[in-house]
């Protein structure tokens, strides 16, 4: 099974080699849990190797300064090379996001010798939530229409991962329901995502919980975020 590095020795060890290349991985959790840091780590790791990364940013979370920090202080030339290998697509509405995925799939179908080694969607459901909120005022048919667009978007990403063997990492938000945290988008992302990692930040303790994986059992990784990336604080 081909995997790509998660950008951290400890994280790679926990995932038995990194992220799988032919599936959609969903990183989900509340604000400030480290989702974008996980994405940037993987992106920098691939870009350092001279490989191309597409970073779809719907929340404005991509930070040039954080990328430079991850590359290393004093590594100005290396940081510039890394940044050139990361193509950032800024989407501002749900329709733009849909069009970006469709265009990406169309281009990849034409080009069998693509250089893309990773696709990241940071904030998969951010723009969906805005349209969903507006649809609620218009009735059930509009809600179904919005949900069908999300299904089509996640299906498109899954096709890219499966047929082109390009790993896809998406981040997702959560909401509280009856004292429980649930993924935004419900069963849609649950179905299409074959690896689910929940990120938590409770009373200063950061942890990642592997909730779904094709070959690994559920487990937890307690970590800390520092200038150089992510490292373990303990194993459970």
Q: How would you describe what is shown here?
A:
This protein is an alpha/beta fold and 236 residues long. It has one domain: Rossmann fold (3-Layer(aba) Sandwich), CATH 3.40.50.300. 41% of the residues lie in helices and 31% in strands. The chain has eight helices and 13 strands. The protein has helices spanning 9-14, 35-48, 64-71, 76-84, 94-110, 126-136, 140-164, 187-192; strands spanning 3-4, 19-20, 24-29, 52-57, 86-90, 116-122, 168-172, 174-177, 180-183, 193-202, 205-212, 219-226, 229-235. The strands form three sheets. A nine-stranded mixed beta sheet has the order 5-4-6-7-3-10-11-12-13. The longest helix has 25 residues, at 140-164. The two termini are 25 Å apart. The mean pLDDT is 93.
Tags for this entry?
236 residues; single chain; two-stranded antiparallel sheet; Rossmann fold; nine-stranded mixed β-sheet; alpha/beta; 13 strands
Brief digest:
This protein is α/β, with parallel strands linked by helices and 236 residues long. The chain contains eight helices and 13 strands. The strands form three sheets. Strands 5-4-6-7-3-10-11-12-13 form a nine-stranded mixed beta sheet.
Instruction: Please compute the radius of gyration using only Cα atoms.
Output: 17 Å
Please report which band the strand proportion falls in: under 5%, 5-15%, 15-25%, 25-35%, 35-45% or over 45%. 25-35%
Estimate the helix proportion, in percent.
Answer: 40-55%
Secondary structural class: alpha/beta
CATH topology, anyone? Answer: Rossmann fold
CATH architecture: 3-Layer(aba) Sandwich
CATH class type: Alpha Beta
């Amino acid at each position: 099974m081909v995997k790509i590095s998660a950008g951290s020795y400890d994280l790679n060890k926990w995932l038995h080699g990194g992220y799988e290349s032919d599936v959609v991985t969903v990183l989900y959790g509340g604000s400030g849990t480290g989702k974008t840091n996980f994405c940037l780590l993987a992106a920098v790791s691939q870009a350092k190797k001279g490989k191309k990364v597409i970073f779809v940013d719907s929340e404005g979370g991509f930070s040039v300064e954080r990328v430079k920090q991850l590359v290393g202080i004093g590594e100005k030339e290396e940081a510039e090379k890394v940044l050139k290998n990361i193509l950032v697509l800024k989407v501002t509405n749900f329709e733009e996001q849909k069009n970006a995925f469709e265009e990406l799939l169309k281009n990849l179908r034409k080009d069998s010798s693509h250089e893309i080694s990773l696709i990241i969607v940071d904030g998969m459901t951010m723009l969906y939530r805005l349209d969903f909120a507006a649809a609620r005022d218009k009735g059930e048919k509009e809600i179904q229409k919005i949900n069908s667009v999300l299904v089509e978007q996640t299906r498109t990403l899954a096709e890219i991962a499966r047929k082109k063997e390009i790993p896809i990492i998406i981040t997702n938000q959560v909401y509280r329901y009856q004292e429980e945290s649930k993924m935004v988008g419900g069963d849609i992302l649950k179905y299409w995502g074959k690896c689910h990692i929940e990120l938590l930040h409770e009373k200063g303790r950061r942890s990642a919980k592997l909730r779904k994986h094709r070959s690994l059992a559920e487990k937890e990784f307690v970590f800390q975020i520092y200038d150089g990336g992510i490292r373990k604080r303990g194993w459970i």
